[in-house]
Amino acid sequence: MDPSDWRIVRSTPLLGAVSQEIAQSLVGNQPVSVYRKGETLFRQGEAADAFFVVLGGWIKLYRVTPDGNEAVVGVYRRGETFAEAAMFLGGRYPVSAEVVTDSRLLRVDGRVLRRRIMEQPELALSMLASASYHLKALVEQIEHIKLLSAPQRLADFLVRLASAREGGATIEMPYEKALIANRLGMKPESLSRALAKLRPLGVSVDREQVSIVDVAVLVQFVESGDRGEEGF
Question: Is CATH 3.30.450.20 the classification given to domain 3-136?
C-alpha cells in the first residue's frame, strides 16, 4: 500500500480507532487487489473467510429473493469496509458481493482478524463501532424509503455525492442507473420520473453527468418533510 491507501485504511471505523501497531498487524502485509466491473467477490452462503477495505471504486452487496430478484442491501465506496461481521454470524456470508465499477480492494484474512481479537481485546470495540456504523446506515436507508418520496430519496443521494452542501456542483453518476434505482428502493422508470421532478430545483442530466445549480436547494427539499406527489 502507498501512503494514500494507508490513510484510507486508518479512516475506517474498524481500523481507525485501534493503535497503529494493531492496524499494521492486520493489514500491513496484505496486497492491494484490482477487480474489474462485474466480478463476484463472494456469494451468499459461502464460507466467510475475509473482509474487505475499499480503496477505490464501488461494491454492491445484495441478496437474491425467493422469486429470483436482487435486493441491494448496501453499496460501498472508498473508505468503507464490508463483510467483517459475517465471520461471526455462523461463518457464512449472508449476502453476495459484486464489483460494480473497476475497484481497488484490500482483502483481509478472517483468521488473522479472529486471532488478533483474541490477542488484542480493544479490537473487539472497533468491531462494535464498525457494526454500529453499518447498522446506522441500514436504518437510515430504511427510514428514507419509508419517509421520503422518490424525488427526495434521489435528491438525498445526489447531495451525499456532492462535495459541498451549497453552491453549484457537477456529479458523475457512480454506477448504472438501474442499480441506483434498486439502491433507493424504486424501479428504473421511477428514477427517470424522479429526475424529472428535480428539474425545477435546478437539476439537469446529460448522460451520466448531473449538474446542480445549488446543492442547498436540494438539501432544503430533502429536509422539508413534504412528500409532494408520491405516485411511485
Answer: no
